[in-house]
Amino acid sequence: MKIELRLCALFWIGFSAVAWAQEEAPEPKDVPTFLKEMERKAGEVSSSEAKWVRKTFAPSFGEEGEGRQQELIATVRFLEEQRSRFSTAILGYLRGAHWLVTHQEGNRWNDWHRQLDHFKTNPKARKDAEAYLTHAEALFSSGMLRTSPAATWHVRSGSLDLTVDSEGKPLIGCNDGMLVCLSKGDSTRVMNVSGTYNPLTGRFYGRNGSLNWERTTNSETFDVELGTFEIRMKGSSFSADSARLTSTLFDQPLRGRATVKVQKERKESKRTYPRFESNSGRIQLQNIFENVHYDGGLQVRGSQLAGMGSDGRPAQLSIFQDDTMVVRCLSNEVLFATDGVSATHAVFSLILGEDSITHPDIKVNYLDKQKVFRATRQEDGVGMQPFVDSYHALEFEVEVVEWPIQGSIVEFRRLTSGRQEPAPFRSLDSFVRGNYDAMRGMDNIHPLSRLSGYVKSSGVGFFHSDEFADHLDLPEEQARLMLIRMTNAGYVDFNTASRECQVKPRLQRHIDARAGKIDYDVVAFNSNPRNSVTNATMSLGNRRLLLRGIGRFKLSEAQDVNIIPEKGLLSIGRNRNFEFDGTIQAGKFELEGTDFEFDYEAFKLEVKRAESLRIQAEVDGEFDQRGNPKLRWVKSVIE
To answer: Rounded distance, CA 210 to CA 448, Å?
Structure first.
């Protein structure tokens, strides 16, 4: 496309003592001699350059008026005096001059030489002059602003104005053009560009411009007005911090940062530029997939769409069923794909009326083809901590929570069938002395006691890891690892990004339980199904939690009560109340039956259908290794 070059002189700088030509008419230079000299010097560069001077440049230049001829000769002599290289600066000047002469652009010639006055009055700018003149012909013919090993920048269409600033330095103005960057065998374009290029600094200062997402899968979806921007044209990328994004997906525009970069990628679906990242404002996308909604900021990465936190709040992903929110995930980054949506570090909530099942740092995925939501525990850091279930008053360490969103059953399961580790389900008020003592390791002082001491001495329950490290006289990294372990054990909430920590009530409760100051329970169920990956299922209707693979567990240490569920099944309701068929072992008694019910608040078992009762009796004169009388089952069974 032809470029309209409109060359306007903004300033005229005259010099009385120094000028391209003296005020008095100079001695005319011999044009034929000059041309022969140029041909000879071009031949030292290459035979093709000598041929161009002889057959192309010389005939057109010989037809020019004497004034222009003498101006060109004077310019060449100045460049020679400055020891500018013939192969770059002088040949570049001759080619640029030839283009202007043959296209009969008189005004253009004048504006260009007005720019070159800067180098006459600033002889130390020899390298700048060489860089500017080398590609003069490409500037006039194709709008090339700069070329380097990394990138070449052109202005296509629109207009180019050759001007000077208040100090006489050359500038190139662009108005309503298309800015093109060629790099890595590919290109990118910015439309409707107006701005100024400074050839001495290699920087383009844009006043405005626009982007669309051409050559991506979002080509019909997004447009960006750039606002002001700056390009270092040595490279192939730039950013605009005051960009404005509009889209067919939402009504209100978003403001943020746009980034343009040449990317060698032929597949549209894999292109990750241009990019936009909002820095203010939130959008609401209803039904990005059926019954899946989004609220938050936005990132566009070529063909990829991502959500992000905005206005001081994380992004929110919500999944509904029958107009009721069932899943809520909060994250600072949400990734959208054609077949689903995901987040790596999300705060997860499965909503059960006023209660919920939560996890503070988990990986979540929605798979649209299968219509399945999945939350997967992380394998390191604070993501290893258990789920907390306020409805059933339990915490549990399953690997995956999965919900087919068109159904009413939530599954809690292993990640793969190859893993046979049991998944513990524990009462929120349980205390296991062995686990507590194991946290001490080889330390002289239990780490929970050290944390409790710091909380009491400082009078705060919220602090930074640096402060805790200073109290312990330890490196911050070591104190941070201690807090991560305490987080996974449920004693604190530690934010690994901000390194802020909030102490939870469990800390003092377990310290008091270990000291015997308060009562506690030992209610815990280990799920280890043999031929299934499913640890438990829950109905969203009645919210009963059906545990599978449950072996013998202790209900009361003081009364020596143990439960053995039949077929490993245990049905749990609100606040740890549960039902089962199977066996109750209490001291010397063993009761088998069905429909047993346990009331946690009253801490009482109700026997509805007892089928048999066995009793153990002491064996006279026989004792076990601990000195207790040996027991044997009485042969008679009460039915």
So the answer is: 58
Sequence letter at residue 401? V
Is residue 542's pLDDT more than 90? yes
Cα torsion at 364, 370, 371, 374 (round to 10°)?
Answer: -20
Q: Has residue 20 got a pLDDT over 80?
A: no
How far apart, in whole angstroms, are the C-alpha atoms of residue 579 and residue 429?
A: 19
CA angle 350, 351, 352 (to 5 degrees): 120
pLDDT (mean) for 32-47: 95
pTM (predicted TM-score): 0.75
User: pLDDT per residue over 123-136, tens digit each?
Assistant: 788 899 999 999 99
Alpha-helical runs (H) found in 122-178: 126-134, 136-142
The phi, psi pair for 21, rounded to 5°, reads: -130, 150
Radius of gyration, alpha carbons of the chain? 40
| Whole-number pLDDT of residue 417 | 67
Helix or strand run (H / E) with residue 578:
strand 578-586
Q: Which amino acid is at 249?
A: L
- Of residues 12 and 592, the one with the higher pLDDT is 592
Place of tokens 């440049």: 57
**Residue 12 binned pLDDT confidence (cut-offs 50, 70, 90):** very low
Rounded Cα distance between 212 and 202, Å, is 25
Give just the sign of the alpha carbon dihedral 373, 377, 382, 386.
positive
Show the tokens assigned to 557.
């240490």
**Whose CA is closest to 199, among 265, 247, 153?**
153
Q: Per-residue confidence at 1, pLDDT binned at 50, 70, 90? A: very low
325 CB neighbour count, 10 Å cutoff: 13
**267: its two tokens:** 């597949």
Contact 155, 143 (CB under 8 A): yes
In terms of DSSP bridges, do strands 159-164 and 4-5 run parallel, antiparallel, or are they unpaired?
parallel
Residues 292 and 210 sit within 8 Å (Cβ to Cβ): no
User: CA 260 to CA 469: how far, in whole Å?
Assistant: 43
CA 508, distance to chain mean position in Å, is 38
